[in-house]
Design brief:
The protein has about 130 residues and is of the alpha+beta class. The chain has one domain. Helices cover about 15% and strands about 25% of the residues. The protein has helices at about 55-60, 115-130; strands at about 15-20, 30-35, 40-45, 80-85, 95-100, 105. It has a six-stranded antiparallel beta sheet, with helices on one face. The structure holds zinc ion (ZN) (2 copies). One zinc ion binds near residues 11, 14 and 40.
Length: about 130
């Protein structure tokens, strides 16, 4: 789905696109923004009105002045690493969740690590980069 007016990816500066996860009746349940260039997927399930594309767009387009990569690029909040144990057939991956705005970032299918610790280090390294 193309959704106009999205700011560029904060991690790599490329164009991003919006998608939605669907509920059982195939109605949009929560929106996410994905970057094809670096693989970043940012889920906004936690934000109020997660089922409203305008709210997800506003959450993505927000940028904080702080650019040192240690806080959430969207709100400046504190973040925690979320270790999602890999499926047996899949490479380890993890996500980073903001405790304040609940944006959840992962780099789907682009983290090539054999252990969970490596996957977390690589995710954090990529996430800490700021282009925008
Ligand atoms: Zn990107
Ligand atoms: Zn945040």
């Amino acid at each position: 789905m193309y959704y106009g007016g999205l700011a560029r990816c904060p991690f790599c500066g490329a164009k991003a696109d919006m998608g939605a996860s669907l509920d059982a009746e195939e109605r949009p349940k929560a929106y996410f923004v994905a970057c094809d260039t670096c693989g970043a997927h940012v889920f906004f399930d936690g934000i109020p009105s997660a089922d409203n594309p305008e709210a997800a767009l506003a959450a993505w387009n927000r940028r904080t002045a702080e650019q040192d990569g240690k806080t959430c690029p969207f709100c400046g909040g504190k973040v925690t690493i979320d270790s999602c144990p890999p499926e047996p057939e899949e490479a380890p991956e993890c996500g980073i969740e903001c405790e304040d705005c609940h944006a959840y970032t992962s780099f789907w299918g682009t983290i090539d690590s054999s252990t969970q610790a490596e996957a977390e280090a690589e995710t954090l390294k990529r996430w800490s980069k700021r282009k925008i």
